[in-house]
Amino acid sequence: MTWFNSTAGKSLLELEASIVQSFLEEKFGYYALQINFPEFNFLSTSRIKNHLFSDGNRKNIDFLVEALPFDSDSLDLVVCPHLLEQIKDKQQFFDELYRIVIPNGYCLLWSFNPFSFAGIRHSVGFDNNFPWNSNFMSSSFCQQLLKSRGFVIEEAKIFNYQPIFFDDKDFYSPFFESIGDRWFPLLGNVYCILARKDVPGMTPIKPKWKKEKSTRAVTNKT
Questions:
Q1: pTM
Q2: What does the DSSP assignment read for the chain?
Q3: How many other CB atoms sit within 10 Å of the CB of residue 216?
Q4: Nearest-angstrom CA–CA distance, 60 and 82
Q5: 106 within 8 A of 154, measured Cβ to Cβ
Q6: What's the average model confidence in pLDDT over 85-91?
Q7: CA–CA separation, 118 vs 77, rounded Å?
Q8: Regarding beta strands 101-112 and 151-159, do their DSSP bridges make them parallel or antiparallel, or are they unpaired?
Q9: Can you list the domains of the chain with their CATH numbers?
Q10: How far is CA 75 from the centre of its chain?
Q11: Percent of the chain, pLDDT > 70?
């Protein structure tokens, strides 16, 4: 049982799905992988041809997150919903992400922000279920790790400024959202980061070809 099975948790997943759709609108390719939350298809609107899932009813591949069994430069997109809270060796995981994504391919990650209402609940609460019993990573540190591995941050967004203490109802206040978005933009409950795999390229040097003198055939007129 996780908090995401509650009314508030399901509502947040739906909000996250709408945010994710805007990030993935113009992403194309052959293979997209979703790691975590198999019961919720975040790739449902993706234009990438083949979707891979490791769990749930959509399961079509089996692997351990700690060792991603994919060839280097093989996936166009990797989507990681609330996976950072569960990964112990985050540096190794980012290394693996960089390895398996194709050059100029993407990874999309989102997680709870420790500097938010969710962070307060995580710090002082007594919940013993996911995600409140896991580890939160800040957006800035996540971006720092991604950049150190060779990714370029294409987009980043922080959203959902609601008090996240009510599990049995879909609590949403436009007041909190407007105030947070305007005055406290870094304190939203969730952040989402779209990173692109950057591969330094070689500048091609064009060879200087020597032009041969053209010869003209001369025929004698008779």
A1: 0.86
A2: --GGGSHHHHHHHHHHHHHHHHHHTT---SEEEE-S-TTS-TTTT---SEEEESSSTT-----BTTB----TT-EEEEEEET-TTT-S-HHHHHHHHHHHEEEEEEEEEEEE-SSSHHHHHHHH----STTTTS----HHHHHHHHHHHTEEEEEEEEE--S-----SS----HHHHHHHHHH-TT--SEEEEEEEE--PPP------PPPPPP--------
A3: 4
A4: 21
A5: yes
A6: 91
A7: 28
A8: unpaired
A9: 3-197 (3.40.50.150)
A10: 13
A11: 90
The tokens for 189 are 């409950």
Q: Is the pLDDT of residue 52 over 90?
A: yes
| Cα 84 from Cα 93, distance rounded (Å) | 9
**Quick one: tokens of 152?**
């370029």
Dmax (CA) for the chain in angstroms is 109
Q: What percent of the chain has pLDDT over 90?
A: 67
